[in-house]
Amino acid sequence: MDIIKNNQEFDKTLRDYQKVAVNNIDNKYNSDIHNRYAAAIMPTGGGKSFIAIREIISFKDKKVLYFAPTNAITSQVKNHLFTQLIYPKMKEENPLVKEEKDYEFSEIDKLVEEYFPNLTFICYAKDNLELSNEKESQVMEDATVFQNSNIGLIIADEAHRIGASSWEKTFQTLIDDHKEAKVIAITATPERHDEQGKDMIDEIAR
């Protein structure tokens, strides 16, 4: 479903510093086919999700995996996809659709799946298993789940938390198994807040 004609359309909605970040990411990916790692480090509330959405649009014809530690983060991204892209498209095609505010999250969830069929959200923190929607809370125990997928982009939101001992090896295996996939790490604080104190941007791109 052609929800947006090109990146330039969405770029008009970005703030200046977000455009700079997007340009830096694009330049890094495009300058060399072997440049597969990029990072967006911004303070909380800086609009990191919009950077991620811009890259989702860029890779909309390939499989995109969006890793996040909580369902609240995936829900926020889905809401942004709905309000910024999906609902305007629906309104353009049918002016009589109900008001944006009247949509339940369950409806938004289905619309995101319909308009972005190549996008998969994965909550990697094990304490998110309480969700009834098992697909949304797909906790990957083994990277071979996506072994045969044509993955174009892997997004690690709150990347500093991906370094938990139970997840770092699995995530790294996924990256190693899909060497053509681009990887973008998103965080406000790249260092882990534990005794390890790892800089996860360096760890992911090692």
Topology:
Layout: H1 7-11, H2 16-31, E1 37-41, H3 48-58, E2 63-68, H4 71-93, H5 105-115, E3 119-123, E4 151-157, H6 165-177, E5 182-187, H7 200-204
Give structural notes.
The protein has 206 residues and is α/β, with parallel strands linked by helices. It is 41% helix and 14% strand. The chain has seven helices and five strands. The chain has helices at 7-11, 16-31, 48-58, 71-93, 105-115, 165-177, 200-204; strands at 37-41, 63-68, 119-123, 151-157, 182-187. The chain has a five-stranded parallel β-sheet. The radius of gyration is 17 Å and the shape is globular.
Question: What would you call the shape?
Answer: globular
Order of helices and strands: HHEHEHHEEHEH
Strand content: 5-15%
As a percent range, the share of helical residues equals 40-55%
Strand line-up of the largest beta sheet: 1-5-4-2-3
Q: Mind summarizing the main beta sheet?
A: 5 strands, parallel
Number of contiguous helices = 7
The structural class is alpha/beta
The overall strand count is 5
